[in-house]
# Entry
Amino acid sequence: MNSSIKQSFPPQYDNINQATKVAGFSMASDVLTGSLLRTLAAAKPAGKLLELGTGTGLSTSWILDGMDARSSLISIDNTAKFIDIAKQYLGNDSRLLLESIDGEAWIRAREGEKFDYIFADTWHGKYLMLEEVLAMLNAGGFYIIDDMIPQPNWPEGHAQKAMKLMDELEKREDLALTKLTWSTGIIIGVKK
# Structure
């Protein structure tokens, strides 16, 4: 990032970032992605937002920072050790519901529910159950994924999964897509 451009950070970002390092969580979204998540959240006043893959709450803090007082965010993760960090620093925000649950179980239990913004930062909603998650998106809603260009922490064979997902998304007629080779590689879809 250009050092002459100052980036403002969410209020709890530094605390969460430090706890993330101590916990050894290496899959957190980067600052550029977080800033974009905040901006897109601000575009959904009184919106109903969903984050699949809380991690330790770094991206959650960015989303909350962009939301207005009438918006709500549900964020889920299946690793209690990490979501507990998010609960510690963000849990008293009344706009946020943090759930420690398996992604597939949560998606199946919420079938028919609709959202204005979905950040899919885990397997469910990205590489698994894509159809079910996209069915949850309102017309005009954002579908956002990151880590779509090769990352040093990708396991063997992950690049092929990412390419397959991009191909699937490009074939859809119900999404208007923009692929950004910026940050970790971001795709933004808007439901038609």
